[in-house]
Amino acid sequence: MSHDVAIIGGGVTGCAAAYFLKAAGVTKVCVIEPDPTYAKASTPVATGGCRRLFGLPENIRMSQFSIPFLKDFASHVAVDGYAPDVQWRERGYLFVVGAGHDKALEKNYRLEKELGVNVELMDRAAIAARYPWMRTDDLAAGVLSPEDGWLDPNSVLQGLRKKAQAMGVEFIRDRVVDVYTAGARVSELELAAGPKVTADSVINAAGCWSGSIAKLAGMDLPVNPMRRFEHFVEISQALPPMPLIKDPDRLVIRPEGTGYSVGLVKSDEPRGFNFDVDPGWFQDVVWPACASRIPAFEALKLRREWAGLYDENELDGNMILGNWPGRLDNFYVACGFSGHGLMHAPAVGRALAELIVKGRFETIDLSRMGYRRVVDNAPYPETGII
Ligand SMILES: Cc1cc2nc3c(=O)[nH]c(=O)nc-3n(C[C@H](O)[C@H](O)[C@H](O)COP(=O)(O)OP(=O)(O)OC[C@H]3O[C@@H](n4cnc5c(N)ncnc54)[C@H](O)[C@@H]3O)c2cc1C
What is the pLDDT of residue 145? Predict the structure, then answer.
């Protein structure tokens, strides 16, 4: 089987790449994905948050392309009368920080403004006045981005997948088990059950598995699976409409249906493919953090919780995008999203299509997100994730 582009992994990144490659006129594109139920993939378990609140211009610009694309998703991916509703909720994003982090927040705010993001900087009094149900005595500042919001990740994934299929992308239900190279190129992919796949270009979009796949080609990626829990809770009296809130404990709370979706990132979580839910984590850490931030969460019912994996870039918490010039010219990685790969998938898909079709970034210059910084051990960290 020979293709123009073979994509390893059919999560949101792989499907977005397939869509934009077809839109750019590439003829033969395939996606190799072993599990059409996506039982272990990160995409379906994501919180669904989409924000422009970042500290790096690349991340802000990617959101500025991706969020309008996702907001208007149905018009891009409608096929045969099927127009998926991603349930976009434009309720805003609010980052609140304590003393010591307010300067970083303000710096990011200035950059966001400079790049044309609609953002509002608030001091503690303004936060307290607008959200009287939130504890604010430990806060110094906040930034609200009212045009941000959240959506249903699985609808995005399925919409892109269906559209890519309708555009002629072949989905191969199999697993890449080996990668063969010849000189500075990947020459062949070996699949677990099927025949070998050859392609002019290969994209490694295998999320948490991208590190082990890159290794088969002799490329080291500092990307590991990091478990992260999500909890759905209900409280007796719903709060007024609220944005997604991220607080100094890295607690995230947003409304979801009849309740709230909450989570708290544990950066020192041992790395590995662990999907077990740790019941103590909610009881001992997340619940107290929720109740401390919003007293109405003192009495709540935990309805459901699950574990998913971040593809964590240990170098700097940002994605790694592109090839390894001179060493693996036709092998493009797109991984290490560290918790923001869903919201950036459209921009990443478009960037991959530009790199492969035109040989350069045309819309957003993402060269600082490339593999070079890994080789040079030169982190390019995101300070927006406080
Ligand atoms: C709890 C949680 C909350 C999150 N919240 C957000 C959020 O609010 N906003 C946001 O933007 N992001 C969020 N994320 C991150 C986001 O989910 C990911 O960054 C994004 O889904 C990554 O998509 P992907 O396609 O790269 O990876 P995945 O969705 O993991 O897809 C990778 C695919 O590769 C396939 N694969 C594996 N091995 C092979 C192989 N050998 N051959 C072929 N295919 C293979 C897998 O089957 C899988 O389907 C969250 C993540 C978690 C876990």
Answer: 98
